[in-house]
Amino acid sequence: MRESDLRVLFKRQAATELPPAPISIPAARRIGRARLLRRRAGAIGSPVLAAAAVVGVVLAVVAASPRQPTAQAGPAPQRFNPLVPYAAMTWYPYQPRLVGSNDWRTTLMLRASTPSPAGVQVDATQVVLYAAGWCTLKSASLSCGATTASTRAQMTVTGTAPDVQGQPAYWADFTGGNLSRLRALAGIRRVLAFQYARGGWALVQSTGTPADLVRVAGSLRYNQTASLRFPVRLTGLPSAWSDVLYASVVQPAPGVQEPTQDELVIGSPANLPGTPLRNPLTIITSTQPVQGPKCRIATSPAVRAGKNSKPASKPTAKDSTPTTCPSSVINGDRAYLNTPPDPGKQTLFSPDADGLYVYLQTWSPQAPLSPTAVFAHDLRLLGPDPAMWTTAPLSP
């Protein structure tokens, strides 16, 4: 092809209109923005999806794991401290007038009641906690406590109750035992039983409804550290009375005016928990003094006149004369010894000793000291004002 022909071809192509371009710059921009947004969303969503997967795995593991108690993670105590109640109720089905506790070292009872003016319990709630190893569940039979320590409770499981603090609970019927305070609750047999910690069982009994029992159980708080306070201090006692084996207190509920009563049973540290007490000393005090006892001296009944004279009748109360019971003044306080007599025991009580009712008892005539000697030399009274009381009733 000649040069002149090529020039003519190039002139024709230059004069021809170009076809429309298939590429749109605005469209390209829109597509680029969309791709960029998808990339950013993917970068953010990947950790979220990963976290969601981890949460799902954790929830699955938790759901498959056995339930653990929420109130107490560790095991139940091997024994309780009678001077520091281990647990406390924080809710009651009613407004109680009296609250208190009884502690046998292996068994702790928490009580709340509203007695009638005649002294009969109208509303009452009791929670009994057993230390580790003192309850056994076999089949449908739950047995707790020790016969020798008067803390035994025998129950038959009758059904499943709502969980208590994350632990399974059971309904049971009280069928026997010698824990008299539990047995004497208005003839009520129904008991709510559950494990408050590993190896330790708790029983709830109340005049309230079944729902109330579950709520009382859920209100329990453990590992409490508030010490009981007592209006007496004992010093210089022999080693046979150097340990608190049992402590009981009944005090008014907050905002209520009622007397406070407490009881201490003191004995040798050699007394093993759950075994019979050996030669203990019992001390009971109350902030409500009482009247002294009234004794009567018998007089001879009337005699018929005649050959075969016989008493007209058997001696009755009418044939006796009121008189003051024999007593002694010890440290300025009137005290009565063995009045009324209690066979095999030595007793002393003072109706009003510095504003307190005081009662002492030993369970054997062979006690290291007599109640009279303890009252005269080893017992210090701290008065009826709780602000003056002590958390250490036994001093070296």
What is the fold's blueprint, element by element?
Blueprint: H1 3-15, H2 25-64, E1 98-103, E2 107-115, E3 121-130, E4 135-138, E5 141-144, E6 153-164, E7 167-177, H3 180-183, E8 190-197, E9 200-206, H4 210-218, E10 232-235, E11 243-252, E12 261-267, E13 281-286, E14 294-298, E15 320-324, E16 328-330, E17 333-337, E18 346-353, E19 356-362, H5 371-378, E20 379-381, E21 394-395
Parallel strand pairs: 10-21
Antiparallel strand pairs: 1-2, 1-11, 2-3, 3-9, 4-5, 5-6, 6-7, 7-8, 8-9, 10-20, 11-12, 12-13, 13-19, 14-15, 16-17, 17-18, 18-19
Task: Describe, in plain words, how this protein is organized in 3D.
By secondary structure, this protein is of the alpha+beta class. It folds into two domains: 68-227, no CATH class; 228-298 and 319-389, no CATH class. It is built from five helices and 21 strands. It has helices at residues 3-15, 25-64, 180-183, 210-218, 371-378; strands at 98-103, 107-115, 121-130, 135-138, 141-144, 153-164, 167-177, 190-197, 200-206, 232-235, 243-252, 261-267, 281-286, 294-298, 320-324, 328-330, 333-337, 346-353, 356-362, 379-381, 394-395. A hairpin with an 8-residue loop joins strand 5 (141-144) and strand 6 (153-164). The protein is elongated and about 115 Å long. The model is unreliable at 47-71 and 302-307 (pLDDT under 50).
Q: Helical stretch count?
A: 5
Task: List the secondary-structure elements in sequence, H or E.
Answer: HHEEEEEEEHEEHEEEEEEEEEEHEE
Distance between the termini: 134 Å
Broad shape: elongated
Q: Which regions are unreliable across 5 or more consecutive residues at pLDDT < 50?
A: 47-71, 302-307
Radius of gyration, whole Å: 40 Å
